[in-house]
Fold:
Amino acid sequence: MSRNVKILGAGSIGNHLAHASRCMGWSVTICDPDPAALERTRTEIYPGRYRAWDESIRLCTPAEAPRGGYDLICIGTPPDVHVPLAIEAVAERPRAVLVEKPLCGPGMERVDELLAALEGTGVRVCVGYDHVLGRATRQLDELVTSGAAGTPVTLDVEFREHWGGIFAAHPWLRGPWESYLGYWKRGGGAGGEHSHATNFWQHVARACGAGAVREVSALVEYQSAQGAEWDSLFALNLRTETGFAGRVVQDVVTRPTRKWARLQGTEAAIEWHANQGARGDVVLRITPD
Structure:
């Protein structure tokens, strides 16, 4: 069945979402208030990644874009405008709204308003934490729920990755100060950009039956340059409502990258390793002997 998709934001993630949608045979409209960003999508980003520009993709400013009639609206803008745009998107009554992570900055401005706007609409709002949807994560979940680790004792998750790769994908940026990435209050820095780790911890804790997080202590290392301020290291100690405890570490300085999770149980440990070359993500069960 053909789908009609509107993508807000013509940056790196907007191009990824557009190409993925076209691979599914869906109709795509990309919106951005900056004409230069739209032109960069048409002449540089999309053809540079996917060999050629797809003439079926419509490019327009938000004012030019039709309202209503979309099955899916994707929001791939800086995080500090995610929630206002999501509220507007819900009003168009698509089947779903996909918001890139993080949903918002740490101030959580207007999140309550978004929840109220969703009431009774039937619109689903999803946030782009894709690591918990992978085949390896499903295998991890099955091992956890089958008791393969025994009784869960503690959980560590790390997403430690130098953000040079991000800037390589955005060559028009000279540094973190030229985008939201360099401003932790806007949802940038390690706490926002690598928040996959916090999401992954919560996901596995729920699979363990440990419930929701109730206690948090944090260590955050800040850096500044060119008027920007971001967290280069973001470390959390977490405890759930059932007393289950563990830690999360996120940073934008580690090379080579380490994206890893370890659930320690009474009988064995289960480890998840991301991006292991041709093997993709890998899950291991490790016994004491």
